[in-house]
Amino acid sequence: MVVKHRKKNTRAHGRTTHGYGSMKKHRGAGNRGGRGMAGSGKRADQIKTWILKEYGPEYFGKHGFKIPPSIKKKEVIVNIRDLPDQESINLTEQGFTKLLAKGTPKRKYHITVAACSEKAKQKIEKMGGKVELPS
Fold it and tell me: Which CATH class is domain 69-132?
């Protein structure tokens, strides 16, 4: 009769080191102190002078760029299907910046808006309406 034995590592479940002794043993990195720039003193004071000589003062601190406010501005869009049942609408006063073409116009609209897609303009003009854009 074949006797089935559990694997050793199932017995080690729930134990921190799984039977390998110290935490640094059996970790696949040999006896080195870490990988990359580990221990470089970025979080403490040990070897900061070496880092400053090697990389300069730019090594520490934040890097990158700030997004200009003009890019952060998002267009507030509205589709034709979401327009209210009024003939004259000023979308700029209502806080919308662009009119898009999804849907069909319910009536002749006279719309004032900052920007408009070409297709939306065609749809509204086909119904006999008008789209006013600022020059």
Answer: alpha beta
